[in-house]
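Example 3.2
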Amino acid sequence: MNTVRAAQIDPETDLVTGVVTCQQNMLVMPYVILSDDHPLQSPEGWSWSSETSALVYVAPAITSDQVQAERTRRITAGFTFQGHIFDCDAASRQNISGGAALALGAMMQGALAEDLHWHGAADDFAWLAQDNTAVPMDAQTVFAFGAAAAEHVRVHIFAARALKDLDVIPANYTDNSFWPPSGG
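Structure, written as tokens:
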């Protein structure tokens, strides 16, 4: 809890007088007297404490929706596979799943490791990384790539679930310590 002691209380009325300025996350936030009934207009989370005669900040509770949004952000930011970062938004996951299914079919028909023509075209099979590098992949690699994408999603779903199951979701829920790495 952050405490700001820049306001004054009128001892006769117990009302805050003047303009209160405080710092929250390095931002200066003004507090203005409105009326005798509502003496202080303040951003969410800040209130006057009669116990300490100070303006105090109580962080709003983190919601499951906020955790869900962080989970989605981390999933869609991409994942690392064989040293490259790949997209992992909804369309990319669908494309990766399709590629993995084709690769499985090719392996069932005898596609060999290191055969970059397993997909039946004249050019080598490759997948574009986030930096637009064409990463050559044989069928076995594409199948493993699909499994890595699915695992990336799965571990983030379970990390979010663990956070949402806590009695109180920590204010620093976006910290990397609560989330899995992007892959390997």
